[in-house]
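To illustrate the input format used throughout this study, we show a single complete record. The first block contains the structure-token representation of the backbone; no residue identities are included at this stage. The design step must infer an amino acid for every position from geometry alone.
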């Protein structure tokens, strides 16, 4: 097709097989030239599309169980707050404390379900994941990652400096003279008379 895009026989052959081209690209993980694929390699590529069920099964179920536990926790917390007995329920307070990291865990399990569940496809039936990886060299990736780390570390240093500086200044209100470049309120009154 690349050599002769106007060839009607090639276009017709392409139209017949275009829906299966992504599945043919699965072979590139096992053989450089897909035309050289043997039936054993085709079987290996086909079996590689079947994921291990256990990680998907348990990741999804734990994620959903955590979601329901959040609903139950918030429902109980609301109920006991409305009854004004929340502080007396030590078990509920401990549960709330222990559950602080659980939303993070549920989100990570959601990513496991999404990313593991779509294997071996980046785009189903079109682009396998092993062909959609970056073509950058490890040196380029390390340099860009180092740049990001240095940049965000610099932002962290500036942020911490500013936070400490303004925290030491204490709270301020307009008209008190505690804002930068603002004259004290008494000086403004003297100048007005």
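Output of the design step:
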């Amino acid at each position: 097709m690349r050599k002769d895009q106007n060839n009607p026989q090639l276009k017709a052959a392409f139209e017949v097989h275009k829906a299966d081209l992504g599945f043919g690209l699965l072979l590139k993980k096992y053989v450089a030239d897909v035309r050289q694929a043997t039936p054993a390699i085709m079987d290996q590529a086909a079996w590689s599309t079947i994921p291990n069920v256990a990680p998907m099964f348990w990741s999804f179920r734990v994620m959903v169980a955590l979601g329901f536990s959040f609903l139950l926790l918030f429902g109980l917390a609301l109920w006991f707050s409305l009854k004004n007995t929340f502080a007396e329920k030590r078990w509920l307070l401990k549960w709330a404390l222990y559950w602080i990291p659980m939303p993070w865990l549920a989100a990570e399990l959601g990513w496991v379900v999404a990313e593991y569940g779509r294997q071996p496809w980046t785009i189903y039936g079109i682009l396998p994941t092993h062909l959609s990886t970056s073509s950058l060299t490890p040196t380029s990736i390390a340099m860009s990652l180092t740049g990001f780390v240095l940049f965000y570390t610099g932002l962290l240093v500036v942020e911490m400096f500013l936070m400490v500086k303004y925290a030491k200044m204490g709270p301020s209100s307009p008209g008190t003279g505690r804002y930068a470049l603002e004259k004290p309120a008494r000086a403004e009154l003297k100048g007005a008379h």
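Structural context for interpreting the output: The longest helix spans residues 138-169. The chain has a mean pLDDT of 88.
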